[in-house]
Amino acid sequence: MKVIKLSIAIGCSLLLFISCKETSKLPVIKADIITEKTPNDSDDPAIWVNPNDPTKSIIFGTDKESEGGIYAFDLNGKILPEKSIKNIKRPNNVDVAYGFRLSDSTKTDVVVFTEREKQQIRMYSVPDMQPLDNGGFKVFEDATEPEHNLPMGVALYTSPNSGKLYAIVGRKTGPKDNYLYQYEIGYNGNSATASLVRKFGKFSEKKEIEAIAVDNELGFIYYSDEQHGVRKYFAEPSKGNQEIAIFGTDKFKEDIEGIAIAKTENDNGYILISNQQQGEFNIFDRKTNAFIKAVNLGTTETDGCDATTVNLGAKFPNGLFVAMNDNKDFYFYDLQKIVP
Q1: Which residues are within 8 A (CB) of 315 and not within 5 positions of it... i.e. 6 or more apart?
Q2: Coil, strand, or helix at residue 282?
Q3: Is the pLDDT of residue 7 over 60?
Q4: Cα separation of 93 and 64, whole Å?
Q5: pLDDT score of 69
Q6: Could you report the per-residue pLDDT of 59-76, keeping only the tens digit for each?
Q7: Which of 21, 22, 47 has the alpha carbon at shortest distance from 33?
Q8: Can you list the domains of the chain with their CATH numbers?
Q9: Pairing of strands 85-88, 220-225
Q10: How far apart, in whole angstroms, are the C-alpha atoms of residue 21 and residue 12?
Q11: Comparing 146 with 256, which gets the higher pLDDT?
């Protein structure tokens, strides 16, 4: 969400402002790294941890425009041109998965992102950045209402039971029920395939649903029903479509945005969620979903975020938190500065 801001001595006026953004009163936690800028409009990030050398991990960030792209950054915040994907028709959200099976003997890590203006999702191998999707997978093909076929959010789930990879996809707007579609991603020997396996997810109809995150180990899907709450479902299709919980209904100023999951030992950890118009992030317990605290990271109008607790070397020995900032860039933080 963009907020029009005008400087005027008398402060906020309904005649002069579309919205008056409240700034956080909490102390700012300063970013360790601010990335180079994307050309158009930064949005959602995803962290790929290099299994061979974590210091060479990559942060992918969407640049949301009709001629946008997925920009790859190193841990210094520098754009990696050879790893970036250009000329994408309004990419929105991005996620990564590990060990996608191409054959009995070959696996690859992958990055998946939505391409809204083509009503599809895309899939590339990582780190060699080769397309695996034969041009893309169409989504919401049975939609009959305007904008119900425009994908926004995406998150990936690898089943610990079957090893299957799934993409959970949200859209610009949709019905009160079955707002999200879940696709099984396979490979036929020449290219990846996507097959619809279920429709699920309630929608309050108050704003929209963009941010989606999957807790792969615990098997839960979380998504932000903006201006309403954070909804929780099972990630495994066989466990059904019943909503498990909704939380955070009284903890956000307006839009509930990006969701990141920081996983620690013994299934403990944190869920960090952007309180967009408050200029803060709310932190919840990973197991109980109870509210812990809010933090001010100095970012503006944050849409997307991501986290890892893996030691990425001298710069981020305690893990990494990445947050989109509304100035065409992303902020990197050592995770220990943020979580309790």
Answers
A1: 32, 33, 55, 75, 76, 334
A2: strand
A3: no
A4: 9
A5: 98
A6: 999 999 999 999 999 999
A7: 47
A8: 33-337 (2.120.10.30)
A9: unpaired
A10: 9
A11: 256
Contact 102, 93 (CB under 8 A): no
Order of all β-strands in the sheet with 107-115: 91-101, 107-115, 120-126, 137-138
pLDDT of the residue at 22: 57
| d(C-alpha 90, C-alpha 219), whole Å | 30
b/e map of 113-147 (b: 16 or more CB within 10 Å)?
Answer: bbbbebbbbbbbbbbebeebbeebbebbeebeeee
- Token duo for residue 138: 């169409």
The DSSP code sequence of 66-130 is TTEEEEEE-TTS-B-GGG-EEEESSEEEEEEEEEEESSSS-EEEEEEEEEGGGTEEEEEEETT--
Across the beta sheet with 42-48, the strand order is 42-48, 58-63, 68-73, 85-88
DSSP assignment of 128-196 equals: T--B-STT-EE--TT--STTTT-EEEEEEEE-TTT--EEEEEEESS--SS--EEEEEEEE-SSSEEEEE
* Average of per-residue pLDDT values in the chain: 93
The answer to whether the beta carbons of residues 77 and 332 sit under 8 Å apart is yes
Structure tokens at 139: 């989504």
In whole angstroms, what is the distance from residue 203 CA to residue 188 CA?
A: 35
> Are 49 and 316 contacting, i.e. CB atoms less than 8 angstroms apart?
no
Asked if 292 and 270 touch (Cβ cutoff 8 Å), the reply is yes
Torsion sign (Cα): 248, 251, 257, 261: negative
Whether the predicted model's global pTM rises above the 0.85 cut: yes
